[in-house]
Design a protein that fits this description.
The chain has 4 helices and 3 strands. It is an alpha+beta fold and about 160 residues long. It has one domain. The protein has a 3-stranded antiparallel sheet with strand order 1-2-3. A hairpin with a 4-residue loop joins β2 and β3. The N and C termini lie far apart (about 55 Å).
Length: about 160
């Protein structure tokens, strides 16, 4: 869902960034290699590892609580046409964070969006969906249905 000025909607960009963050380093590198005449990247914030506090909720809707700290790496780049890309990944993989930032900047540029969508985002979405489906199938195989027998005198 993009506007008529080719500026991506916030929810589209969030979805693209979520997929890029889930991509493996080889998938990201292949996507960068597939971009024809890629622009120069200016590093605004070099990749840096850090920690964030992960929060949880009991039962998904209860009161929030601090689950613990999680290592992340972030990076920020800008391409020649002015788009600024952000990369945040779990772990301490600085190269992966930089690739995510570069692909985010390219995805925002109308000229490169289709290439990034077809070479990285669509294949990673398919892989993640297939992995999730396999996990659901394994989980379903271990499902136990509990039921209660009611005896006649307990009514």
């Amino acid at each position: 869902m993009t506007t008529t000025t080719d500026v991506p909607a916030a929810e589209d960009r969030r979805a693209a960034l979520a997929v890029l963050a889930a991509a493996r380093a080889d998938e990201l590198a292949a996507g960068l290699d597939a971009v024809p005449d890629a622009p120069a990247f200016e590093t605004l914030r070099a990749p840096e590892p850090g920690l964030v506090m992960a929060r949880g909720r009991i039962g998904g809707g209860g009161a929030p609580f601090n689950l613990g700290e999680v290592a992340i790496t972030r990076a920020v780049v800008r391409i020649d046409s002015g788009e600024v890309g952000f990369g945040h990944v779990l772990g301490r993989d600085t190269a992966r964070a930089l690739m995510v930032a570069r692909l985010d900047a390219l995805w925002q540029a109308p000229r490169y969006r289709a290439v990034v969508e077809s070479t990285v985002i669509a294949p990673v979405r398919r892989r993640v969906a297939a992995e999730d489906d396999a996990t659901r199938q394994k989980t379903a195989a271990t499902r136990v249905n509990f039921f209660t027998l009611v005896r006649g005198e307990d009514r």
